[in-house]
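> forwarded from #structure-qc
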């Protein structure tokens, strides 16, 4: 688009937005089992949207100018601390920012600028690699148990060195939805005088409600000895609009290490609790209103429905010949694989039937699989989802696995991407049937099969190029 010469009216703009969104996946209804979180209660999302809008133009940059921000943040962070074992926290824009701040706090706790490393299980979220990259911390990746997919305590212990500033456990890890042995990991970290962060981005506002609804959930929060910080996203199972997460620290002195201040210029003095400086209070208003609109009772009810749906889904998947659930997830995140059908074809088949089931590439010995995040609304549609999965399995069996053109993987693996401009990359993709300029929902099986055959660093390089091309 170019900037219009004359301003346009709101009705025309809204019509255009709805045209732009026509190929988007739906954000409500439960047929998209990743990215979006639907309570199934439109009035709750409406309350959040209106509160978001009320706070939209408030800038959280200066809490003395907008005291509403301080009061709302105290209430939201206080509610999270109340559920997750206390501590003092920061409201952030998402899991990545919460993790960034936890890693910064740990790095800045080390004695005067020495080297900093952190121990990260291979199933932990890439946000830790991103934080490490941005903050100059080295990552020591450690394996998980190949059957349970939980981090190996022995491997964590062995990886700790005198430069280790942080050890990570997930509750749960996203790929298979299983909770790492938090108490044991925190204990080995504490014994070596190392901080321990629990990534409860997806589980922090889910596991307590599942537990109350009857699920077996091991202790994972700040009440566990040795856990020094924890992240909890509200824009996932808090059901808040995007841009909402909390990071809690057991010790207020550690929280201050996450802050940043600069008086090194002649303008206003910057004191930030977060990575962003000027930012809208909209997400905070949205999170606050979602808490108020649902209340304890609302979240517990969602927890019950989510638990029932997750149990039914696991049982149903186990009953479909050719599929198997990976591990024994305590959460509402379910991954399933197949030794008989191509899961990437299965995912495309589900998409043709109006459902998005997220494909996960093979990594660290874990085979390619499909990830489903069960939310509050899923229970109403769980039988329909199982039918679609069964039909998609049958269709994928019929179609057989993706066959890649001879030499394609070797070609992509050997590409000198620096010598290829974006246009040439687009042409190369088109030559194997991938239209990067196309609209609509693409068939992804070929792309996934190629990526799956590449080592992680090549996947990264190819996808960076993909992103650059689609935004050109
Ligand atoms: C979603 C997620 C994150 C990252 O959160 P964003 O809000 O996408 O930045 C980190 N860890 C886990 C386990 C997650 O599920």
């Amino acid at each position: 688009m170019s900037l219009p010469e004359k301003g346009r009216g709101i009705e025309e703009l809204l019509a255009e937005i709805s045209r732009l969104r026509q190929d988007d996946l739906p954000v409500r209804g439960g047929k998209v089992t990743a990215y979006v979180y639907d309570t199934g209660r439109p009035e709750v999302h409406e309350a959040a949207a209106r509160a978001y809008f009320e706070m939209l133009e408030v800038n959280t940059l200066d809490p003395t100018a907008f005291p509403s921000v301080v009061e709302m943040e105290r209430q939201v962070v206080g509610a999270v601390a109340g559920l997750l074992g206390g501590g003092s926290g920061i409201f952030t824009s998402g899991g990545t920012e919460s993790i960034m701040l936890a890693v910064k706090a740990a790095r800045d706790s080390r004695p005067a600028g020495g080297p900093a490393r952190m121990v990260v299980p291979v199933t932990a979220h890439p946000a830790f690699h991103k934080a490490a990259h941005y903050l100059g911390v080295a990552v020591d990746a450690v394996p998980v148990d190949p059957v349970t997919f939980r981090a190996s305590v022995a491997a964590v212990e062995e990886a700790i060195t005198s430069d280790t500033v942080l050890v990570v456990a997930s509750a749960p890890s996203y790929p298979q939805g299983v909770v790492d042995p938090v108490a044991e990991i925190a204990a080995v970290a504490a014994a070596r005088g190392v901080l321990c962060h629990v990534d409860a981005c997806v589980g922090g506002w889910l596991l307590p409600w599942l537990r109350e609804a009857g699920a077996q959930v091991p202790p994972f929060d700040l009440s566990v000895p040795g856990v020094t910080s924890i992240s909890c996203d509200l824009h996932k199972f808090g059901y808040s609009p995007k841009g909402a997460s909390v990071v809690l620290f057991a010790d207020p002195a550690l929280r201050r290490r996450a802050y940043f201040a600069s008086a090194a210029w002649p303008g206003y003095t910057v004191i930030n609790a977060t990575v962003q400086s000027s930012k809208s209070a909209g997400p905070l208003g949205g999170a606050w209103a979602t808490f108020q609109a649902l209340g304890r009772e609302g979240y517990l009810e969602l927890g019950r429905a989510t638990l029932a749906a997750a149990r039914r889904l696991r049982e149903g998947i186990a009953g479909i010949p050719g599929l198997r659930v990976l591990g024994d997830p305590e959460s509402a995140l379910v991954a399933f694989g197949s030794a008989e059908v191509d899961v990437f074809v299965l995912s495309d088949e589900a998409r043709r039937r109006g459902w998005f089931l997220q494909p996960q590439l093979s990594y660290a010995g874990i085979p390619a699989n499909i990830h489903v995040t069960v939310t509050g609304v899923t229970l109403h549609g769980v039988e329909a989802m199982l039918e679609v999965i069964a039909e998609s399995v049958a269709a994928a069996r019929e179609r057989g696995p993706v066959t890649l053109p001879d030499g394609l993987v070797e070609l992509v693996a050997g590409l000198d991407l620096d010598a290829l401009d974006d246009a040439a990359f687009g042409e190369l993709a088109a030559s194997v049937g991938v239209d990067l300029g196309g609209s609509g929902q693409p068939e992804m099986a070929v792309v996934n099969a190629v990526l799956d055959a590449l080592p992680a660093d090549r996947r990264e390089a190819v996808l960076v190029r993909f992103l650059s091309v689609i935004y050109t």
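QC bot note: DSSP finds 16 helices and 13 strands in the chain. The two ends are 12 Å apart (CA to CA).
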